[in-house]
Design goal:
Distance between the termini: 20 Å
Radius of gyration: 22 Å
Helix content: 40-55%
Number of helices: 7
Strand content: under 5%
Mean pLDDT: 85
Strand order of the largest sheet: 1-4
Structural class: mainly alpha
Low-confidence stretches: none
């Protein structure tokens, strides 16, 4: 499922310490194309999938859980809080739901900038998911529009919907990817990988 490329980072001498000023080898990861991947499940795994599908079918026809909206609502808000935390925005899910209910009731309340951004992220996620779900197929432009909506009113707003043209990484130091825990694909690979993802979403015959 993918390969690591070997690349060398040529230092320009910039950095606060010796490690940051040094160049060195780093390893961008390139995943396999989804549309070219032949999925083969071993018997144990295939049986587990079949049992899960049957259980879902039984729940739909026989289950007593007739209204899943409250559960879906809670899960969506928990996801919004977790996604916002990645951007350094902290807000308890309980507080988020409290503010939403106050808004629904028309009760004035005070929120700080962080809370306003998390609420904005949630509303953008809900509206974009509803918009995309109503379409027959997904496009790369839809994904970019969704990304732009999620970053609106954050400090990364200018990057919303933009396909990156620079190398990024996780871990290591601030200046270069040498020693990073994970280096995503090189910028030149990203457009093709995104198109592959969109095509897979639209054409895959695999069960959800």
């Amino acid at each position: 499922m993918g390969t690591y490329q070997k690349r060398f980072w040529q230092s320009d001498g910039y950095g606060m310490n010796k490690t940051e000023r040094l160049g060195g080898t780093y390893y961008p990861y390139v995943p396999d194309m989804l549309c070219e991947f032949e999925l083969s499940l071993n018997p144990t795994c295939a049986n587990a999938v079949a049992q899960a599908q049957q259980a879902l079918s039984d729940l739909n026809t026989q289950g007593s859980l007739t209204d899943t909206e409250p559960l879906a609502r809670l899960l969506l808000r928990a996801e919004a809080v977790s996604s916002s935390r990645i951007e350094g925005l902290e807000m308890p899910a309980s507080k988020l739901m409290e503010y939403e209910e106050l808004d629904r009731l028309g009760v004035n309340h005070r929120i700080d900038a962080t809370e306003a951004q998390v609420l904005g992220n949630l509303h953008a996620m809900i509206s974009e998911v509803d918009r995309i779900a109503s379409k027959d197929s997904l496009s790369l432009q839809d994904m970019q529009h969704l990304h732009a909506s999620l970053l609106r009113r954050t400090r990364y707003e200018k990057l919303g919907g933009v396909i990156r043209t620079e190398q990024n990484w996780i871990g290591g130091n601030r200046v270069n990817p040498v020693g990073a825990a994970y280096v995503p694909p090189e910028p030149a690979e990203v457009p093709l990988l995104l198109e592959d993802l969109v095509r897979f979403i639209n054409e895959s015959q695999l069960p959800p």
